[in-house]
Structures are given as C-alpha cells and as structure tokens.
Design goal:
It contains 14 helices and ten strands. It is α/β, with parallel strands linked by helices and 322 residues long. The strands form three sheets. A five-stranded mixed β-sheet has the order 2-1-3-10-4. The longest helix is centred in the N-terminal third of the chain and has 20 residues. The protein is globular. The relative contact order is 0.18.
Length: 322
C-alpha cells in the first residue's frame, strides 16, 4: 500500500481491521450440562474457561449445572445442550440400547472419589449397618445410582436406594434425618467430618464396579456431532489442554478452584492431590468395557450386551492431536 491514495489506504486498513476483528471474536458456542458443580473432575470446563484455554481454541462455553448424571443425560438427549459432562456410563448404555440419540465423545471419570457417609450418632459405621436404611444417590441413571446398586448386590443388603440430588441437598437431607446415608465427592463434607458430625462408611472404590473402570462420560447428540464436528474437536483439544494445566505447578489453578468451591487453597490442593489422580480425568479411553457391558445387563440398564458394532457407533471420541 506504499503508493496508494490516502482514502484507498484508509479503506484498506479499515477492511483489514474488520477482518482481523471478526476472526478474533469468532467463537463457536458450546452449551454444556454438567453433573455436580464443584467436583474437581467436573471443574475442567470452568477452570479452562477461566484460564482462557477454551477461548484460545475458539470455543465459548455456556455452563449449566445439574443435580446428577440422569438430568445431564436428558439434557443431551433432548438436544438442549451440545455436551453433557459426568453422565453415568450405565445410564448412557441403557439409553442408547433403547434407541436414544446419544453418543460418547470422551471419558469423564475413570474411577471415582465419591464416598458415602452417615451422621456420627446414627450408629451406622459400615455398609453392613444399612439394612432397612435409606442409601442416597444423585439421580436415576447416574454413576452414583449404579454404585449404590452394586453396594446392595455385592453386600446382599436390604438398604433402600434413594435419589437425593447433588451433594449439598444430600447433606441437608442427612442432617435433617430425611435419609440415613448420604453421598458426596470431595471437598463436600470435609467441614462436617472435621467437626465430628459425619463419618465415612464406604468409598466408591470399595466396589469392584469402580476400580479401574470408566464410570462417567462426556456425551453429545448425533445431530451435534454432525453439525459441530470441527468445534467438538477443538473443544476436546481445549479440554485436554485444561487437564494438563490443572495438574501443572501453576498456583493459579488451585486459587481458581478454591474460589469456585468456596474452600481454602490448602483444601483445594488436598482435593486434587489426595483424591483425583490425573489418570482419573483422562478423556481418551473408555476403560473396563469388558466388564461394564455385562454389568449393564446385570443391573438391568440394558436387556442384552451391546455388540461391538453398537459400541463403535456409540463411542466417537475426537482423536488427540499428535
């Protein structure tokens, strides 16, 4: 533009600025439903968004928190959101087997840090003491629902499974004697444990159902996969980058998580370091399918085992960049 006339130069500069500006602000909106606000493993979108990682990948997030995996799954099936996070694997297999429009785009949690607790003065010290008692889980079709069913089956209990929603509402139900045994995920319940009000009676990892198996998923609708394939790829790129950031030495991530949950930075760091190994949030592989598929039949989520062709259709994880 060295020899152009002033007006033409100005117009060219203005046009270039507009082009740059439109590229800079052009972001794909991804709506998410997320089970359980405040868990470390479900905080990936929030922490990555706050750190600007999703924006860097051209993704604008709109986050909606649900009471559990069942609600999250329904939001995806109804096409109200683009992605559901922390949907229970058994609920998803069951819905897919019945023809529901749902696809798996990643593992959300392999293993679990969830635990079950009772009031200290209740006399309930272990799962064996829960016969005839109410045993909480979040929502129907959630991972905590499957774990409770497994507790009952494995220990031959007569406990009554009871949906109580998220950890906060569950704690209220326990403390007001509406249910006997509640469920939570760190850091929920730490304050009450330190005060001697509640005690842990079981952990998710007490069940073989959980050890080494993927129990929660990232899911999407087939229409979303078709229409937003490239955006979902960038979402997963940002999701993976956020996980690396969450397990880095950068102190900001602990500060942001502590603020998000309303705990001290020491508690926030304890939650990550003691309860959530990085392998737990690895999104790239659904682990334990050889056991999950038959267990889905045992727990009556599916009428018969899903075939390899069905699993190939169901599981469509965007590949990690090499």
């Amino acid at each position: 533009m060295r020899n152009c006339k002033p007006l033409l130069c100005a117009a060219s500069v203005f046009a270039a600025a507009l082009t740059f500006s439109s590229q800079a602000v052009a972001e794909d909106l991804i709506k998410m439903a997320i089970g359980q606000r405040g868990n470390w493993d479900t905080a990936v979108p929030h922490l990555g968004d706050k750190a600007g990682i999703f924006k860097k990948h051209g993704i604008k997030l709109e986050l909606l928190y649900t009471a559990g995996g069942g609600e999250t799954q329904q939001a995806v099936i109804s096409n109200s959101v683009d992605i559901g996070a922390a949907a229970g694997v058994y609920g998803v297999l069951g819905a897919f087997s019945k023809g529901a429009p749902v696809r798996i785009i990643g593992a959300q949690a392999t293993g679990a840090a969830d635990f079950w607790y009772a009031k200290t003065d209740s006399g309930i010290k272990s799962l064996k003491d829960t016969n005839g008692k109410t045993l909480a889980y979040s929502t129907n079709g959630s991972s905590t629902h499957a774990i409770v069913l497994a507790f009952i089956k494995e220990n031959k209990l007569t406990a009554k499974p009871t949906a109580t929603g998220n950890p906060a509402s569950t704690l209220t139900a326990v403390m007001t004697n509406q249910v006997d045994v509640g469920w939570a995920s760190p850091p929920f319940g730490f304050k009450e444990m330190d005060a001697g009000q509640i005690n842990i009676i079981a952990k998710a990892t007490d069940s073989p159902l959980v050890r080494g198996q993927t129990i929660r998923l990232l899911i999407s609708h087939p229409d979303t996969l078709a229409k937003k394939k490239e955006a979902l790829q960038r979402f997963m790129d940002a999701y993976r980058e956020t996980i690396d950031y969450m397990y880095s030495d950068n102190p900001q991530v602990i500060k942001d998580y502590a603020e998000f949950v309303g705990v001290s930075e020491a508690v926030a760091k304890r939650v990550r370091d003691e309860f959530f190994p990085k392998s737990l949030v690895d999104p790239d592989q659904i682990k334990g399918l050889d056991q999950i598929v038959p267990d889905a039949v045992t727990f009556k989520y599916t009428a018969q085992p899903l075939t390899s062709d069905q699993l190939k259709e169901l599981i469509q994880i965007p590949p990690r960049k090499k």
